[in-house]
Amino acid sequence: MGEGVLILPPDLVERIAATVGTPTYVYSADVARSQVATLHRAFDPVPHRIHYSVKANGNLTILGLVRSLGVGVDIVSVGEMRRAIVAGFEADGLVFSGVGKTRAELEEAIAADVGLVNIESEDELELVAEIAALQQRSVRVGIRVNPDVTTQTHPYTQTGAAGMKFGVPEDRVLETAQRVLRAPYLDLVCLGMHIGSQIVSAESYGEGAEKLGALVKELRAGGVDTLTSLDVGGGMAIPLYGKPGLDAFEFAAAVTPTVRETGLMLLLEPGRFVIGNAGVLVTRVLYRKRCGGRTFVVVDAGMNDFARPSYYGAQHDIVVVGNEHGRAEASETVDVVGPICETGDFLGLERTLPPLEAGALLAVQGAGAYGFSMSSNYNSRPRAAEVLLDNGRFSVIRARESIEDLWRGEVVEPEWL
Ligand SMILES: *Cc1c(COP(=O)(O)O)cnc(C)c1O
After folding, report:
1. 243, 229, 230, 164: which is closest to 199 by C-alpha?
2. Ligand 1 touching residue 255 (CB < 6 A)
3. Whose CA is closest to 272, among 353, 130, 374?
4. pLDDT tens-place string over residues 328-375
């Protein structure tokens, strides 16, 4: 079993499954805490601030946990902003990112006085300037740069290459910065990037940071002297399915020279790194069947609960919970599939597992990030429950959705206007 695999006490998982049912996301508070501590240790040599990315896992209890560690948040919608505020974050601890913020979202965020708005286009800059002037409120602005860095990850989780929708192209940054300076209510305080997700290469971060560093010099030479921070984004990979993650210390070594040279405060926006390997998805085996020469284990979690295998082709370890199965000597090669009416509905293909019977419990590892937060009600399935473990105890931090929740807001007899 690879590095980063979280093995929860089987008796506890069985108790949770018996009490809360399955499928259920189970998170370890300790793992999340130690991931944040690792980042702080790695970046100890430079002034830095961590802003946890809410979209990885926005559960209110998880947000409260990261807040208690002195971390801020990175948000990409007003829904995430409200979550963060409900969880107790101060507005100035929020960094508002995202390529398509609406006017209503910007109005609400500016009125709330969020700590930083990272703009991604010159059009957005105009809108932010207009709203700030209307509200007569000063806004701290960052420019998200597209540093044209390609890196090895799934094409859908690459965001820092030229020709992608994210960020302001390098050759437009100076002009954009000068436009920010001319806007009476805007303060340009940050240059940033976010090059993608599940990135294993420290060099990619180093390359991106150097480009940001060069832009800082260019801006300073062009009369921009208001910068206070450099944001290298999130995307740090976790170990998954036998593949290593990004080493926090190598990552730090790649970006700190640039941070030192600029003298700016470093901002980090990790999501997956904090919560990914702190969570598992617990699911129960429903059936075992053979069909066309393959053996299928049908479980009660599907692609609506955990989209990553189907959507990104992501591979996650699947382990058997409990000794009676784990100890079995024999093994077989099976496809672990969900109940959804889609052939792409699988959690893992061609996995070697001990022979499984109906009722066995499985844990899909590394499911703490982009697990629940990407889940849906497809096939009219209520979304899973979420449970937090801390100090040998557990707590249900999100109740399983009810069947009635599924049609909230719908009507049988429409009212015509
Ligand atoms: C999604 C996102 C992150 C977090 O990405 P991870 O891969 O979860 O670390 C950070 N910053 C921005 C702007 C994002 O969109």
Report:
1. 243
2. no
3. 374
4. 567 899 999 999 988 899 999 999 999 999 999 999 999 999 999 999
Q: For residue 324, what pLDDT band results from cuts at 50, 70 and 90?
A: very low
Contacts with 247 (C-beta within 8 Å, 6 or more apart), sequence order:
202
- Looking at residue 404, the DSSP 8-state letter turns out to be G
Residue 190 falls in the annotated catalytic set: no
Q: Which of 341, 411, 412, 417 is catalytic?
A: 341
The sign of the torsion formed by the CA atoms of 363, 369, 370, 372 equals positive
- The angle formed by the CA atoms of residues 299, 300 and 304, to the nearest 5 degrees, is 110
pLDDT, tens digit, 9 for 90 and up, residues 236-292: 999 999 999 999 999 999 999 999 999 999 999 999 999 999 999 999 999 999 999
Q: Which ligand 1 atom minimizes the distance to the CA of 197?
A: 7
* Residue from 174, 124, 147, 107 nearest 231 by CA: 147
Rg, C-alpha atoms of the chain: 23
φ/ψ (deg, to 5) at 292? 55, 40
Q: Given this model, what pLDDT does residue 164 score? A: 86
Token readout for 200 is 């294993």
Phi/psi of residue 308, nearest 5 degrees: -60, -45
Dist. CA 2–CA 238, nearest whole Å: 11
Tokens representing residue 108 in the block: 């609400």
